[in-house]
Amino acid sequence: MTAPGEALPETGTVEIVPPAEAAAIVEEVADAPASTAPLLIALDIDGTVLLEDESLSPGVADAVRHARQAGHEVMLATGRSWEGTRGILRVLELAPDYVVCSNGAVILGRVDGDEVRYERVHTEQFDATEVLTRLREHLPDARYMVELPDGRRLYTEPLADWNLLNAARVPFEELAGQPVSRVVVVSPEHTDDDFLRLVDEIGLAHVSYAIGWTAWLDIAPHGVDKSTALELVREWLGVPPERVLVMGDGRNDVGMFTWALGHGGRAIAMAQGPEEVRAAAGEITASVEDGGVAAVLRAL
Ligand SMILES: [Mg+2]
Question: N or C: which end of the chain has fewer CB atoms below 10 A?
Answer without folding.
Answer: N
